[in-house]
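Review form for a predicted model. The reviewer records the input and the model, then writes brief findings.
Reviewer: anonymous (R2)
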Amino acid sequence: MTVVEIRWLDASIETSDFKRKEAKNTKPVDRWTTGYLVEENEDCVVLATDYYVKKKDGFAAKMVIPWGMITEYWYYA
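Model under review:
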């Protein structure tokens, strides 16, 4: 099972009021995520936090990260 580490830019939301000039310096959230690589396709990378050894292809906590949000990507055997 391959483990990957992905650095990616995530969306965020704040529910408080703000002024336009306060939004000028807003940036995406810089995240680092590590997980088991389940799938890579043309749209995204699919990770899982858990892999069940006794269940064939059994995974938990699916996470989908679109390629356009990924800034760095590392594979670990």
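Findings: The radius of gyration is 16 Å.
Further findings: Strands lie at 3-10, 29-40, 44-52, 58-66, 70-76.
Recommendation: see findings above.
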